[in-house]
Specification:
alpha/beta, six-stranded mixed beta sheet, five-stranded antiparallel beta sheet, 23% strand, elongated
């Protein structure tokens, strides 16, 4: 269906927003559908171009409502966002996510559009956080991926003194998209430091090796901890892959009309639990001490639920 050429009228924003911006075909709607609407990567092939602005409100971690504005990337819409509708689009923004398309043939035009977005953001939402997703990173050879993202990171760091963006390489075909979005939503949960401290206490008191908290609907990693500290980045990266696999498995269960509930794995190396925890989270607990009976770990998880409900929901 062809879009009308009539002037675009964007709905008035209510509350703080997470705005997704980028040129047409960059993959904005695909990633949003994958994270928040239980699409698979193959399912996103059915999606058409976004017309105007698609609004959605997603409940995340209990009372946190993500007011998502997915902005169509066709030229006439971008021109409207940056001029006639700039106060409405860029006013009261909590997070701006700019999606760079690695398949673009004109990176400078992408940078110019990004600069215009930051100019408007500086005028109307100076306290907003900015994230740049270098998307379709799967198109780049494995040994060139980090260098490619780093080249964007250096270029973007020079383009604004006020906004220093988090820059991530992403693809709908692997865990990189989950990693980026987990980092983004991590900054939006107001009491995250308290939740993390209590998760560390739970890990210590139960003699767990690793503990991870997932958001229930998206299965994004909320926070994680390990006995003795450990390399948090390595732990987080590991569980981004788990996040993607569990979400795919859960979707398969739903297709078979057999809703996913929990997982328990026990072998000579470790015992793993993935359990519903609070109304908005799942918890993953790994123990490596063979003396710890699974029933004890399960009882510890159940005993901690009410305490975490007060923190996370």
């Amino acid at each position: 269906m062809q879009a009308s050429s009539a002037p675009v009228s964007v709905k008035k924003k209510v509350g703080s927003a997470l705005v997704i911006m980028g040129k047409s075909g960059a993959g904005k709607t695909s990633m949003r559908s994958l994270i928040f609407s239980n699409y698979t990567a193959n399912d996103t092939r059915r999606l058409g171009a976004t017309i105007d602005v698609e609004h959605s409100t997603v409940q995340f971690m209990g009372d946190l409502n993500l007011n998502i504005w997915d902005c169509g990337g066709q030229h006439k819409y971008l021109d409207n966002y940056l001029n006639e509708q700039k106060e409405n689009i860029f006013g009261n923004v909590e997070v701006l996510i700019y999606v760079f398309d690695l398949e673009t043939t004109n990176r400078e035009s992408e940078y110019k559009l990004y600069d215009e977005c930051l100019h408007n953001l500086e005028a109307y939402s100076r306290d907003a956080k900015v994230y740049c997703l270098v998307h379709k990173i799967d198109k780049v050879a494995e040994d060139q991926k980090e260098a490619t993202v780093e080249s964007y990171r250096r270029a973007l760091a020079k383009r604004s003194e006020l906004f220093q963006p988090g820059v991530y390489g992403t693809s709908i075909w692997d865990h990189t998209l989950y990693r980026a979005w987990s980092q983004i939503v991590y900054t939006l949960v107001p009491n995250m430091a308290v939740i993390k401290q209590h998760l560390m206490n739970f890990c210590r008191l139960t003699d767990a090796a690793e503990v991870v908290l997932f958001e229930r609907a998206t299965f994004l990693v909320v926070c994680c901890t390990a006995a003795g500290g450990g390399d948090e980045d390595a732990i987080t990266s590991k569980y981004m892959g788990v996040s993607q696999v569990i979400k795919m498995y859960r979707n398969m269960c739903l297709q078979c009309q057999s809703p996913f509930r929990d997982i328990q794995v026990r072998n000579k190396h470790y015992t793993l639990f993935i359990e519903p925890f609070t109304k908005s989270t799942y918890i993953l607990v790994i123990t490596v001490d063979p003396e710890i009976e699974p029933a004890v770990t399960k009882a510890n998880i159940d005993a901690a639920k009410n305490h975490f409900i007060k923190l996370a929901d």
